[in-house]
Amino acid sequence: MARDDTLARSCGPGEGVVRFYQWALPTLSFGRNEPAVDHYPDEASLRAQGYDVVRRPTGGRAVLHHRELTYSVVAPIAAFDSLKAAYRAINAGLVEGLATLGVPVKSAPPAPALPPDAGPCFQAPAEGEVMMQGRKLVGSAQVRIGETLLQHGSILIDDDQHLLDALRAEQEAPIPETIPAMGRLNPNRPAKLRDVLDPMPDVETLILAVESGFRTSLPGDWRTDFDGGSLPSSTLAERLAHYRAAEWTWRR
User: Fold this and answer.
1) Domains in the chain and their CATH numbers?
2) Residues annotated catalytic, as ranges
3) pTM, 2 dp
4) For residue 208, what are the CA distances in angstroms to 34, 97, 214, 247?
5) How far is the C-alpha of 149 from the C-alpha of 207, rounded, in Å?
6) How far is CA 181 from CA 123, 145, 166, 186, in A?
7) Residue 225 contacts by C-beta under 8 Å, 6 or more apart in sequence?
8) 10-49: per-residue pLDDT in tens?
9) What is the spatial distance between Cα 83 and Cα 181, in angstroms, rounded to a whole number?
10) Cβ–Cβ contacts within 10 Å for residue 132, how many?
11) What SS3 class is residue 149?
């Protein structure tokens, strides 16, 4: 989170960065304004159960980052007509890239906006998010930082989101994957790439596919020699301190 934030604050005029990463530990991330206190166990309890925890700079609702791929796009807002146009372009790149692997994806239709306390992110798609077989496959969120936008999200390889059910104070039992009486998949459970890809490609292949979609949907000249480690050390240190602070993680 600190690196994404630092990139958004540090890119030069007209510059953007796409990056991909995974997580060393299963990590629960809260949306920027999502209520977490009294809804989830405290940090010590989460760590005792093997989970890390962080609060994102972007909005949205709780995500468990585990067997997934996280993407991040930092770009100048001026490269698009609006933040909504950027959101559509980034999601279009996700759809196009995943389709090259044979994943039957599409963008979610218009739907009422959900409040920050509506439960975990993957229970329902927001307008424009990436769906597969009627269920959410990619959860995405966006924030404006100065004249730059940051959008990042989680592409599910496997479905670990049900583990959040056992952590939430409001949820007594996991949401089932199927609805037996109706003989179909539960739309409140997310999709996962392993549902349709057999064998599942390695992560590098997945990254290259999504990158190819972004190259088509995002404007500008692309290069691959950006050194993501050469961020301003003072800014990165300040952002790391911010995201490690309990006052931020448990602000609500």
Assistant:
1) 2-249 (3.30.930.10)
2) 121
3) 0.91
4) 32, 8, 10, 37
5) 21
6) 20, 47, 24, 11
7) none
8) 998 899 999 999 999 999 999 999 999 999 999 999 999 9
9) 42
10) 21
11) strand
